[in-house]
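Narrative of activities, Objective 1.

The group set out to show that a structural description can be obtained from nothing but a protein's sequence at a throughput compatible with the screening campaign. Below is one input-output pair from the validation batch, recorded exactly as produced.
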Amino acid sequence: MKFTGTERYYLSPELGEIVNISIAMEKPLLLMGEAGTGKTQLAFEISRALGLRMEEARCKSTFKGEELCYVYDTVLRLNDSRFGSGETGRNIDNIWDYLRFGPIGRSFLAEDRRVLLIDEIDKTDSDTQDNLLDVLEDGSFIIREINHKVTARQRPIIIITSNAKRELSDPFLRRCFCHYIPFPGPEEIAVIVRLHFPDIPQQFLETYLTAFYKLRNDGFEKPPATAELIDWIGALRATGSQVSEEGKQLSHIGTLLKRSQDLLKFKGIHKPPRF
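Output recorded for this entry:
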């Protein structure tokens, strides 16, 4: 089982090597880098290219590691014990009817091998990361309420992403293969653009990229990344808009800059001081 990229995802040789090593050795792959560089999309493309189902966890600051594995619905069981389960098919004496499995649990219990995406792990706290250490390394977790061990029938391909908003713990990092996706240079990003717009004229592509890189170097709080570039070019082509050679007149600027301060800075407008 080997991933070689797809018709819409550019896979650099270095990234391709670490992806396939992690697949072969069944180790989680932690992808780091700024937002919009294709970390999350990689998991979806691996799933699509290899014909594997996806299980996805979009991390939040309130997440606990356990709920990515399972949740025991005590409220539902209590409600059924008081009012009956009716025609739901649930049995109050069977705790399994009240267990809800999260993306890790579903990927471990599945008969088929799956791709497990744990997206933006840096949004969680260190306790959550520590709770996942043995789960990801051993491919198992314990359902505490019944002291039952769930072991992965087939270890999923685990892709973990981080935008580096918060440092990850050393023990967590030791359990992963790690790769930093740098922002692509003009040659690489031209290849990426052509995957999405194969018929784009070379002159237009050069003009777009010149304006795009100038915008990235203008000191914005959140400079546009690859995802924004693709959206911007799509908007330009859909509307027939043009870009000046100097990159000063940019249509659909809201597809590139997303922070209000950045939009105000681009337009040369400053908020009045607060008193």
